[in-house]
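Sample entry follows:

:::
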Amino acid sequence: MPNLSARRARRPGPRRYTRRDRLVLGVLLGLPILLDLALIWGPTFASVGLSFTTWDGIGDIRWAGLRNYDHLFTGYPQFWPAVRHNLLWLAFLGLLAAPFGLLLAVLIDRRVRFSRFYQSTLYMPVVLSLAVVGFIAQLILSRDQGALNAVLGGENPTDWLGNPGLNIWMVLLAACWRHTGYVMILYLAGLKSVDPGLKEAAALDGASARQTFFRVVLPTLRPVNVIVGVITVIESLRAFDIVYAVNKGRNGLELLSVLVTDNIIGEASRIGFGSALAVVLLLVSLGFIVTYLVQELRGERRQ
C-alpha cells in the first residue's frame, strides 16, 4: 500500500495552463478562425442574404424576395447554357482527365525509362494558372496567328476560339492538359504507399497484372479517389480564368462563375442578382461534394 500511494503521488496531474499559455492558444486559434469567418463564411452568408434583395452597390438595399431566383430560372437566357457548360466541364475532367492521370501515374510508377523526365514534364502545366493556360491556348488556337492553323495551312483557317460549336471543346482540352498532371501526382503518391507485399501475394496466387491492379491496388486507393473526386468537382465548378482570358466567357464559353462576375462587378452592378447566381453555384457545389463524400464513407464502412 505505501508503494502504491507513492506511485500515485508521483503521477503528474492535469496540466494547468498559465495566463501566457491561454494567450498564445487564443492567438494561434483565434486569428485563423477570425480570418475564416471574415474571408469565407462572412461573404458566404452575406451573399445568401443579398440574393433576396436588389442593390446596385451604392443606393439603398431593397427586399426582393424570390424575384431574383424567378428571373434567374425563367428570364435569364445565359443561365441554362452556363449550367450545361459547367456540367460538361465536370464530365470532361471526371471522365477523361482523371482516368488519364491515373493511367500516367501507373505507367510512371512502373519505372519506365525516363520516368523522372515524364513526371516533371506532365506536372509542369499544374504550376501555371488557368489564365496563363488561356493565353497559351490563344497562341496555339488563334484564327489568324495561331500555331495550329499555321501547321494545318489552308485558305480558310478554322476559328477554333470564335466558333461557339468548337471553342468550348478547345478550352476543355486546355483545362484537361492542366488537370491531368495534378491528378497524376495525387495517384502517384497513392501508388507509392501501396504495400508491395499485397502485389507479391496476388502474383503468387496467379493473378495477372490487370487483376492485381483492379482487385488489389485500386481498392487501396480509395482515399486518393475521394480527394481526386472532390478536387475535380471544385475545379469544374469554379472554372473562370481560362474562359475569361479567351473571350471573357462569352460566345459559347458561358460559365456560372463568369455570370456571377459580370453581374456583381460588371456595368450592370446587379449585386442582388449576382448573389443569387453565387448561391446557386454554392448549392450545386455542396450537392456534388456532399453526395460524393457520403457514398465514399458508406463504402469505407462496408469494408
Remarks:
- The longest strand covers residues 53-54.
